[in-house]
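User: Can you predict the 3D structure for this chain?
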Amino acid sequence: MGLEAAVKINGDNVVPLNAFQKQRLIDIDMQVKQIIHDGGDEALLLSLYDFMEYFKKIMDACSDKELDEYCKKYYGFYYLAKLLEDMAMGIADGTISVPCRARPVL
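Assistant: Here is the predicted structure, written as structure tokens:
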């Protein structure tokens, strides 16, 4: 199915990814692969900000089945999704500690 897969927009209405969304997915895939080749996970974590806006939009627009298809076709996209999922799970189960936010001084 690949990039021609339909994605959900506003509930059950289904439309294909537009050309801009398709290109952002491909861009994310290529950039992530280059970063992990050159510097590994640490370099990827330091560059997450560059990807997050479009990554989130794609994640929100796709069904689970469609995301599975994209992840099979685009390893860099999968790698980023898996890294974020692992981090979220680590934070949730306490494996990764997160510093407490400082309370504002009143």
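Residues 1-14 have pLDDT under 50 and may be disordered. Strands lie at 6-8, 14-16.
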